[in-house]
Design a protein that fits this description.
mainly beta, four-stranded antiparallel beta sheet, 13 strands, globular
């Protein structure tokens, strides 16, 4: 996912997100294993809100979408008790589309 002048890459096996420069130079990573804020259990899809820079991350085994700021600070989460292994998230206009693997359907949040 290109976010500003950075590239974000999910690392589901390692429970973190890697951050690179546009030229491929490694910058940093964030996240760890768990179910608290900025912790992940199988992170998959990423999307960004083009209006405010927020980043949406599918936290699959925690059955939620985490929202973080463009400065990688936790903002909120949603989807617990609704999602069952979200794999991809996309934003379009005022809607958030989430593809759910274990409950094979497309959820639409607004």
């Amino acid at each position: 996912l290109i976010c500003g002048n950075r590239v974000l890459v999910t690392q589901s096996k390692y429970y973190y997100i890697q951050v690179y420069e546009l030229d491929g130079k490694f910058v940093s990573r964030f996240g760890s294993s768990g179910n608290a804020k900025l912790q992940f259990s199988l992170s998959y899809g990423l999307s960004t809100n083009e209006y405010n820079g927020d980043i949406y991350i599918c936290d699959s085994s925690n059955n939620r979408i985490q929202i973080i700021s463009e400065n990688f600070q936790s903002k909120s989460e949603f989807g617990k008790y609704i999602l069952h292994c979200p794999r991809d998230v996309k934003l379009y206009q005022d809607n958030i589309f989430v593809l759910d693997k274990s409950n094979p359907c497309l959820h639409i949040f607004n």
